Each structure stands twice: as C-alpha cells, then as structure tokens.
C-alpha cells in the first residue's frame, strides 16, 4: 500500500514511514528532498535509512537523516530540522513512524520564526495531528502556548505495546473482568506472527500468512490508542505519547517488544537484502532468505548469532538447519561450506538438547565457531569480520568470505524504555522474575521481550506470562485471590529438518518443563509430531486462542500464602 502524502504547505509535506517502493510516487508528486525523522530499528518491517537513501539518491532526491526518539525532541533537533529545511531544495517531504514527529518539528521551527501557536495548532489539526500537548511541553521564550488544556484520558489499566504479549494480556484481562476500562497503545497498522518467519525463510510458510491487521486483533472493549509512547512518568501515573499528550492510568502494563539494532554491525544496513545478506528477523527479508537458499548450488553460507539477550535464541540456528536440509535433499550439500558463528560459548543454553542438535550439525557438515561476534560486513566484496579471542586472550578480528550470510542482529530494549525510570542498569524493564511486578513501582507490570527476567524471549514465554500478569494485577485490585508465579517457561521449536523438530521447553536455570508426556513428544529427540505442532497447530492457537484470551495449557502456580 503506497504511502499517503499529507500536504502541510506548497513546499512541505509529511507522512508515515515510506519504503523504497514509494520513491517513484514521491518523485512523480514533485518532491525534491526527504527528511527521515525515524530512528532505525523501531519496527520489524521498517526499512533502514540506508535502503531509503540508496533509492532516493538513485532517483535524484537529496535526503537528511534526523532521527528523533519518540517523545524526546530537543532544541538541537529543532535546529537541525530548520537547517535542513533551509538548505534543501523544495518541496521537502518528511516522515517518521506516523508523521507526528515530523509535523511537530516543522511546527516548532515555524514557532521559532514567530508564527502563533493558534495558527500552528489549526494547521496541524487540518493535517490530522493534535499538537496541543507537544507545543505545551516545549516552551519557547518568545511565545506562550495558547488554548485550553487537552482533555485528560484516564484508564483503569493502560497497556503499552500491541505485540504478542500486549494483546494476549489485554485478552486475558477481558476474559476475567469486562468492567475495567483498558487502553492499549501502539501505532502499528499490522500485527506479525514472528515465529513464522523462520518457516518463510525455509520455504514452508507464505509471508502473507504471518500478518493480520491490528484492528482485527484488538479485543472488544479495549480502546486502541493508535500512537507511540514517548516517555513514562510513573510518579504521576501517566505516559506521554510522542505528541506529548498524557494518558493517565491506575495500573500500567509495559510490553513494547525488543529493538533490532541493525547498526550494531558496521556496514550491515548498507547491504541488507542484497549481496547475499539476509535475515529472518525482518518480515520483508525472510522471503529473500528462501530465494538465496533455494537458488544456491555451491559456495559458502554463514549463519550468525550475536551476544544474548535476543528474541528466540534458537532462530539463528533454525535458519541453518532448514537451509542445510534443503541443500541435502537437493543433492548439493557437499558443494556448500556451512559455518555457524556464535558469539556465545555453546550451541544451545540448555545442555539436554545439545546432543540431538549436534547430530544435525554433523549431518549438514557445519563448522561451529563459538566466541565469534559479527562486527562488520562488506556486501560488495561479500566479506564478514568477526571479533574473537586468540590463545592469549587478546581480542582479534578474523574474516570470512561468503556467498550467503544469514544475520541475527544485536538486540536491545527500545530507546524510550532504556531512557525511562522503569529501566534497570542495562535498559530493560526491571521486574520481579516471579510475579512480573515492577521492583520499584507497585502498580506497574512488565512482560514480553523488553523486561529483564532471565527467561527465553519467545512467543511461548509471552503466552505463559500474559495470564500471570492479568491474575496478579487483578489480585492487586482485590478482585482475585492468590498471586501467580512465573517459572521462566519458554519454548523453542528447533526446526532441525523439514518434517522434524527438537521441541525445547525449559524455565529458569534451564529446568526442563515439557508440556507433553515423553511417550507423545520427547523434546530431546527430533519429532514428527512436534513438527505438526509447529506447522499446523501453533499458528491457529496463536491467532485464535492466545490473542483471544483462551489460555491453552496455561495453569500458573499461585502462592498459598496469598490465597
């Protein structure tokens, strides 16, 4: 779907995120220059600035990159934006996730030139943006904000993030109690079934079967605030949206997901999606993985895994197994040199599953390179460099050429979480690992990939966490008895070959937590039944059960002392 340009003046327009495919339309519309205000890595379907710049410059457009962390516009940002507008050939088109940051920056630049707030607010409203809170939050000495205060939005429960964890916990709450006022905040138009992307990269799932509209998934009775969170103000029981509008809450649930740090590897963003460089961690790149695998007849294939934490720690090697299996079935495996470069010290963090996985490493003749972190990549020469340690313990860099490389990017907490009072020293939401309640703010809970409990970051973990958070929040309200405890459960269906899976299920400390009796599915051995579970059963369970508040195979333990 092509992006819609919102005309602000004859020489300036804004929009939501654009893609390289939108560039011809922008040129046809007369745009001469672009300004990107969205930092890379905010979304799983977000093209990098390098991809946009390459397409823009090829079409004769100039482009400036002024990334703004949502809700954190500084005076230097305003100055940089103003300078870019003055220097660039018009018409200029600016974009971010929703267009709000771009519209706000333009308005603040105009205000600095003496334009009255009333005029700017009216102009923004005509374009579909309410900037009353944004202008109020960034005062300028030369002018005062006019107009009355925006009406307060107050809810019993506010949920930040409408990914797997956010929607699941909203549905779990609604299943238990329909009388609460609940809001869920997320700007995304679509929702992805991310566990399916490995299967897309293996030629098993269709890309389009891993996505649905967000509107179709928000639970009935829950208000969807289609915006991004800019900051948290837990002392005042409110969050500020990226336009600075406050949303007040009695209790808060934070589930914003994880940030893919594509810039954590030098040169990676310049070559993603071409030169044999791919990743199943992005919706639009998973089909490229399959294109590379299905067309490869000989050469060198590299698979990488960065330092923990990452979401679905098995996904990097799943790509290796499905690729190796395809090459074996097509009789070309002997012509392909496979290497797995893992920044960690072991193949898998739970030792009981390693013997079965090693059988497949040997079957596909893959060379294991532990303690090797991908540090930089040159797509044009198809060369990758890795940091490791030599025999004396000194850090050294080694290189390898490649014909194909599957990259798992480094991952961090979202910027607006890292910079918030909710974060621990490493930037993750600081929760009690058993109750998932925040350690410092008693009316806040966290779940999903952005919180700091030492569990595997998987959709299966979120499936278990959602009813625990729902129960414990309602216990805090005095509506249910007993505090539920999370045991760290996570599941990683390791697709070792087409038709068989090693179903790893474990909790805190690597304790095995199988869901099925060993006679049905022995998770320490490759299983055809586990494959059927992954391919045919788990997707409809995700869409029709987990996201609908039907808590399949979830029965959290409750503290007897609290019952």
Automatic annotation (TrEMBL):
Superkingdom to which the source organism belongs: Bacteria
Record's keyword terms, sorted: Transferase
Boundaries of every Beta-lactamase hydrolase-like protein phosphatase-like domain copy: 6-111
Signal peptide bounds: none
Gene3D superfamilies named in the record: FAD/NAD(P)-binding domain, Protein tyrosine phosphatase superfamily
Domain FAD/NAD(P)-binding: from-to ranges: 155-271
A Pfam short name: BLH_phosphatase
Nucleus among keywords: no
Calcium found in the keyword field: no
GO MF entry, a single one: transferase activity
NCBIfam families: TIGR01244 family sulfur transferase
Name the UniProt record assigns to this protein: TIGR01244 family sulfur transferase
Source organism phylogeny: Bacteria, Pseudomonadati, Pseudomonadota, Gammaproteobacteria, Cellvibrionales
């Amino acid at each position: 779907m092509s992006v819609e340009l919102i005309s602000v003046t004859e020489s300036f327009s804004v929009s939501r995120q654009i893609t390289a495919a939108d560039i011809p339309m922008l040129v046809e519309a007369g745009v001469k220059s672009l300004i990107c205000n969205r930092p890379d890595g905010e979304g799983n379907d977000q093209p990098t600035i390098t991809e946009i710049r390459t397409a823009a410059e090829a079409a004769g457009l100039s482009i400036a990159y002024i990334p703004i962390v949502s809700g954190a516009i500084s005076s230097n940002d305003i100055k940089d934006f103003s300078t870019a507008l003055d220097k660039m050939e018009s018409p200029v088109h600016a974009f971010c996730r929703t267009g709000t940051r771009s519209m706000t920056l333009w308005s603040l630049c105009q205000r600095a030139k003496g334009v009255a707030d009333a005029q700017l607010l009216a102009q923004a409203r005509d374009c579909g943006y309410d900037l009353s809170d944004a202008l109020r939050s960034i005062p300028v000495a030369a002018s005062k904000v006019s107009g009355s205060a925006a009406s307060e939005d107050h809810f019993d429960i506010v949920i930040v993030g409408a990914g797997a964890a956010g929607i699941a916990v909203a549905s779990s709450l609604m299943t238990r109690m329909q009388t609460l006022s609940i809001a869920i905040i997320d700007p995304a138009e679509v929702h992805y079934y991310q566990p399916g992307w490995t299967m897309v990269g293996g030629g098993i799932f269709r890309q389009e079967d891993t996505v649905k509209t967000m509107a179709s998934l928000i639970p009935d009775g829950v208000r969807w605030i289609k915006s991004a969170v800019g900051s948290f103000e837990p002392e005042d029981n409110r969050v500020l949206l990226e336009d600075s509008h406050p949303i007040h809450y009695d209790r808060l649930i934070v589930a914003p997901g994880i940030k893919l740090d594509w810039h954590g590897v030098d040169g990676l963003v310049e070559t993603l999606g071409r030169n044999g460089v791919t990743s199943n961690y992005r919706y639009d790149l998973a089909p490229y993985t399959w294109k590379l695998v299905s067309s490869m007849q000989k050469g060198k294939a590299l698979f990488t895994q960065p330092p923990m934490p990452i979401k679905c720690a098995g996904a990097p090697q799943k790509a290796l197994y499905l690729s190796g299996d395809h090459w074996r079935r097509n009789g070309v495996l002997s012509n392909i040199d496979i290497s797995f470069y893992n920044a960690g010290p072991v193949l898998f963090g739970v030792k009981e599953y390693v013997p079965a996985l090693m059988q497949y490493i040997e079957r596909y003749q893959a060379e294991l390179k532990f303690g090797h972190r991908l540090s930089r990549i040159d797509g044009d020469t198809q060369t990758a460099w890795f940091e490791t340690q030599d025999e004396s313990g000194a850090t050294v860099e080694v290189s390898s050429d490649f014909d194909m490389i599957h990259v798992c990017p480094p991952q961090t907490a979202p910027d607006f979480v890292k910079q918030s009072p909710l974060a621990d020293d490493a930037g993750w939401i600081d929760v009690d690992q058993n109750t998932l309640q925040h350690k410092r703010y008693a009316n806040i809970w966290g779940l999903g990939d952005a919180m700091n409990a030492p569990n595997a970051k998987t959709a299966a973990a979120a499936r278990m966490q959602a009813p625990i958070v729902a129960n414990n929040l309602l216990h805090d309200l005095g509506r249910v008895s007993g505090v539920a405890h999370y045991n760290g459960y996570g599941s990683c269906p390791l697709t070792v070959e087409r038709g068989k899976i090693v179903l790893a299920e474990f909790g805190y400390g690597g304790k095995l937590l199988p869901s099925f009796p060993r006679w049905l599915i022995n998770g320490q051995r490759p299983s055809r039944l586990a494959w059927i579970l992954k391919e045919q059963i788990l997707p409809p369970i995700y869409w029709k059960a987990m996201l609908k508040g039907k808590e399949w195979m979830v029965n959290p333990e409750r503290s007897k002392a609290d019952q």
